[in-house]
Amino acid sequence: MQHGPEVSDADWDDRLDPDLVPIVLAAREKMALRPPLHSVTPEQMRVRAKAEFVPWNADPVELRRVTDFTLPAASGAKAIPVRLYEPDSRDSDGCVVHFHGGGWTIGDLDLEDAPLRWMARAGRFAVLSIDYRLAPEHRFPAALEDGEAVFRLMGTIGTPVDADPDRIVLSGMSAGANIALGTALRLRDAGGRQPCGLALQYGAYSDQETTSSVRCFGNGRYGLSLASMRYFWENYAGPADGPRHPHAVPLKADLAGLPPVFMNHAGMDVLADDSLLLAEALGKAGVLVEHKAYAGAIHGFTQYVKISRLAQTALEETAAAIAVMLKR
Prior knowledge:
This protein has helices at residues 9-13, 21-33, 42-52, 54-57, 113-123, 142-153, 175-190, 212-217, 226-237, 272-284, 309-327; strands spanning 65-71, 80-86, 95-99, 126-130, 168-173, 197-201, 261-268, 289-298. It has 328 residues and is α/β, with parallel strands linked by helices. An eight-stranded mixed sheet has the order 1-2-4-3-5-6-7-8, sandwiched between helices. It holds the Pfam family Abhydrolase_3. This is Alpha/beta hydrolase.
């Protein structure tokens, strides 16, 4: 793995992207004054996360239109809230279907509003953000069922999304990248229409705890901790000693037959090696994969797009890759 021997926090601090230093230092101050994320209830976690990202989503990038509505779910579940981002002009009649992060437990349509606006504008494509059902109230495969339901509605008569159903990219950040990939595996196994590409950013693909990135960053000094990931995995996929489906833990899955994948990871992230392992496994399965690494980045760094040039670069490079997929 890329990280090699463990080093001290001070040494890792020197490797942080300068724009992200004040964010990390402020987070450490908060951590010292309140219970860790995984020790509070899911509802408390959601309230905390929603409040923390309000300033990062304030003064949003202007687009031609941003619309909230619902789409029908499968199997009698409640309607799925969605948000459609439409830039001033589009270079493709396709669409990106996006799943937000948050450990399968936190998040809503507001969580990644700023980065999604940036991507839509940079790539000149529409983005449909999905407010899928959250764990632990709705465990696996509820989020994938919502993803599949939305995908199958794209391009159908009466759906208020103007998109070519054969030009749909599934996208996600963190746990959302896991859901995008799991949805693609579910669609592949069901047969029929498939997405034309996947865009996966700093995702969770394995429940392993022995990687070097876990050893280096699992203490949570740079954001996401191993303790939080254990909690999130159990919320979503069940106990660690129980069976976990390959669609929930994609590095356990047969990855053959997936569409082209663009993926990235943050170098200073407990999940960094998940992406390295996935890129390797995708290549061995014959899947076309492009992989970008951002060495000085922390988990979730694209949410700080307002101040971080590294986040802006990552979103622009992701948008460029998606734009290519939508035109294939």
